[in-house]
Specification:
This protein is α+β, with helices and mostly antiparallel strands and 319 residues long. The protein has 3 domains: 8-113, Orthogonal Bundle (Arc Repressor Mutant, subunit A), CATH 1.10.10; 115-174 and 282-319, Periplasmic binding protein-like II (D-Maltodextrin-Binding Protein, domain 2), CATH 3.40.190.10; 189-281, D-Maltodextrin-Binding Protein, domain 2, CATH 3.40.190. Helices cover 39% and strands 24% of the residues. It is built from 10 helices and 15 strands.
């Protein structure tokens, strides 16, 4: 047991959390129901919340109803656009996120004392996403030295069903059926150029005056061609590249041409954003695994640890 600002007592006593005043009219809130409320607030509707939790749509609806009846308040307004938090729901979710962070932190500490947390763990990422998890990854290695971790950054997505990896960090607005996991962020994209290139062309010049990188014609580039026609008609393509993000990054930073990058990376590397964020390309970021692996200690602890670190960074559509 531990305390949460002196207000949480008897944590995980029969899977319940007691939170005085802040959460509970009836002085007790079921923690398992609370995580369903968190998932709905993050995903916006029952179907996406169910996918994130690896349960059915009806289960999420039943848990929400149970929570609202238990607390005696309405937590969400049901609208055509999705589930919108009520003021009571906002209060609950704000406190619940703090509770969640404490629970995950305590869980990691307790699991660190578990001599059975060992074995192999294969993690797949994308090379440009790895910096987001590097610090948390190092902490995991130090905390769980008996877990033998392999991390891969292949060009093509690995197959979890063929056990090419145990956990994958992926960009997707619709994760594959048959996988379970957590949505841990939302990546936005914009066009970027190096400061030297912007100084050479002129910060106020139209986009078509810049030299641009484009994709190898053998790749699916229709979306990019359409973007050029609308936003930079007649732009000069100075080089075409494959999907090697390391190469694209080096060429943009070296001033060869402008191209699209995640906004978190463009800002971190001191690049200049050209035009607004391209909302149509915004993509969810997921940590995924197989249903049969999600309760394996090393998989569960790793995913919770990395998910908490990513959420703490606030990787979102405005990142």
């Amino acid at each position: 047991m531990w305390s949460y600002k002196g207000q949480i007592t008897n944590v995980f006593c029969q899977a319940r959390v007691v939170i005085e005043d802040t959460l509970c009219i009836n002085a007790r809130m079921d923690w398992d129901n609370l995580r369903f409320v968190l998932a709905i607030s993050r995903e916006g509707n029952l179907s996406r919340a169910a996918a994130a939790l690896g349960v059915t749509h009806t289960t999420v609806g039943r848990r929400l109803k149970s929570s609202e009846e238990q607390l005696g308040v309405r937590l969400f307004d049901r609208t055509p656009e999705g589930f919108i938090l009520t003021p009571a729901g906002e209060d609950l979710v704000g406190t619940a996120e703090q509770v969640e962070a404490n629970v995950l932190s305590a869980q990691s500490r307790l699991m660190g004392r578990d001599a059975e947390l060992r074995g192999s763990l294969i993690v797949s990422s994308l090379d440009f996403l790895y910096p987001l998890i590097h610090d948390a990854f190092v902490v995991f290695l130090e905390r769980y030295p008996r877990v033998e971790v392999t991390i891969t950054v292949p060009m093509d997505p690995v197959s979890l069903t063929r056990r090419e990896a145990d956990v994958a960090l992926r960009m997707s607005n619709s994760p594959p059926e048959g996988l379970v996991g957590q949505k841990v962020g939302r990546l936005s994209f914009a066009a970027y150029a190096s400061p030297d290139l912007v100084a050479r062309i002129g910060a106020d010049q139209p986009l078509e005056d810049y030299p641009w990188l484009s994709l190898d014609k053998r790749l699916n580039q229709q979306w990019l061609d359409a973007w050029f026609r609308k936003n930079a008609p007649g732009a000069r393509i100075v080089a075409r590249v494959d999907e090697n993000t390391m190469l694209v990054r080096a060429m943009v930073m070296g001033g060869v041409g402008a191209f699209f990058m995640p906004t978190f990376e463009g800002k971190a590397r001191g690049l200049v954003q050209l035009g607004p964020v391209q909302d149509q390309y915004t993509t969810d970021l997921w940590l995924l695994t197989l249903p049969e692996l999600r309760h394996t200690s090393r998989v569960r602890v790793f995913m919770d640890h990395i998910a908490a670190a990513l959420r703490a960074q606030g990787i979102g559509a405005s990142s």
